[in-house]
């Protein structure tokens, strides 16, 4: 399994949807809650090429994007392969 990292905020419905999909895929992921750790916001924006919205999702070294991007990968049948590496 690839390393999965997701930057979220506790009150974000898109973050909840994205983490729910990752859990349904049995993906082991690290959740960085930037509302609880605001010092991670700057590094998140840098890693996400300037994107400042949450969630921001990374699978391995690939920046997936946000919730809609994650669901689009799943709908295209590409998410499982990405997670497996």
From TrEMBL:
Entry keywords, A to Z: Cytoplasm, Disulfide bond, Electron transport, Redox-active center, Transport
GO aspect biological process, one term: cellular response to oxidative stress
Family: Belongs to the glutaredoxin family.
Superkingdom classification of source: Bacteria
Protein name as catalogued: Glutaredoxin
Gene Ontology molecular function terms on file: glutathione disulfide oxidoreductase activity
One CC-aspect GO term: cytoplasm
Coiled-coil residue windows: none
Gene that encodes it: grxC
Transmembrane annotation, as ranges: none
Domain Glutaredoxin, residue spans: 4-64
Lineage of the species this protein comes from: Bacteria, Pseudomonadati, Pseudomonadota, Gammaproteobacteria, Alteromonadales
Function, in words: Has a glutathione-disulfide oxidoreductase activity in the presence of NADPH and glutathione reductase. Reduces low molecular weight disulfides and proteins.
């Amino acid at each position: 399994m690839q390393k999965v990292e997701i930057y979220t905020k506790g009150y974000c419905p898109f973050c909840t949807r994205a983490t729910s999909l990752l859990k349904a895929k049995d993906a082991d992921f690290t959740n960085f809650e930037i509302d609880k750790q605001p010092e991670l916001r700057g590094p998140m924006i840098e890693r996400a090429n300037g994107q400042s919205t949450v969630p921001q999702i990374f699978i391995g070294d690939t920046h997936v994007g946000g919730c809609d991007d994650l669901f689009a990968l799943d709908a295209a049948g590409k998410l499982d392969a990405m997670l497996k590496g």
